[in-house]
Amino acid sequence: MNMGTGIGYDYETEKKIRLTNALTMFSSVFAFFMFIDFMTSGLSIYVCLSVLCMFFILISIPILHQRELKVFPRLLYCSYSLINVIILSVVMGPEVHAQYFLFAYLGLPMVIFGYEMGKMKIVLSLLGLVVFLYLEWHFQHFEPIAKVPEEQIYTQRLTNNVVSILVVILLYYFLNKENKRYVDQVKENIFREEKSKSLEYFAYLSHDLKEPLRSVSGFTNIIKMEYHDERNKELNKYFKFIDNGVEKMNTLIDALSQMATSGKTSDLNKTDLNFALEEVKVMLNEVILEKQAVIQAKNLPIIMCYSTDIKQIFSNLISNAIKYQEPSNRPVVKITYEENKDFWKFCVEDNGIGIPEEYQERIFKFFTRLHSDLEYEGSGLGLSFCKNLVDRHFGNMWVESEIGKGSRFYFTISKYLKRDGLPVSKMIHQEKMN
Question: With 80 as the cut, is the pLDDT of residue 224 above it?
């Protein structure tokens, strides 16, 4: 039912495609049993072949969705629904009430088409009414191809009514499930949007935060010039502490500012992660050569994502994998993935020093460091930066690790990202307008 989804369509279109696929599966089962029934009843081979053709058309609809044909497969399903009712009515006659399927059809275009079709949805619905009127005329002037025996009319009519009820139940269940899923997504989007706004506010403050540091650095340099004395080692040590502290604070503010503005210059598009990883390797070429690191990855997928963000995630995780190693160890980094129904799941595995279990959640928080600068340099923001970028893709990030046996960092990327990148409030307003 999810064929053709997760390729960058907006949420409303994804919902319509999944609904059409669900109806198609139900209808293909019905068409198959109808073909068997017509064959065993000894009907004309042409009638049987027409039903068989309808069956093959049905099973092609999800495949067409997978080929990124957005509207045509749903038009095909509407056409099937009309032709199927015509075949049933012409073959069995008015007594089995097959023509009343058309009343359910009248709402079908409204349900499976979003804003793409506009007024054409009304035209498609009215076409169902035209077919119903034609069938009433047909019943007055022509006999059924296969007269249903009197004792089977009730059974056939009951079957058709049960099918109609099942279609209504399926529509209700599916739309109720999709609406709940949509509400959950909106809540999550609002939470992430508020979090992003908080970080953006920090970006505006970063200049003000640096001003006191510039003052401290400036006055420290004046004092150094006034009281410079190579022989006073104690005083020079204190000056060095001040310089290092100012430099570290500047680095932290710059890192936080970069995190706050991350993703603002990146567009959502299809990205071949094999090429993205090659670009990351070029950026990290110096450290890879220095440590003789091995980066293993093959046949990564093409996905919808913010390409700059994904490169940054890979860059940070690979850099950490190379950095946090025993001195005698040669870094080996393996990148793998799994495709799931609603998301892509990636794993960056290393053979490094590992992370204690009690710190495996804490490391994704701001300014969390497990080692001193003398052991491993860093700001304590790299993983929180990655998590922020993963959040932007409506994904999750976590780690599995053992001391001395390396770490496996996992992150997921949703398949239901908006192409336009609008804020949630605007997306909701736009969908309502449509």
Answer: no
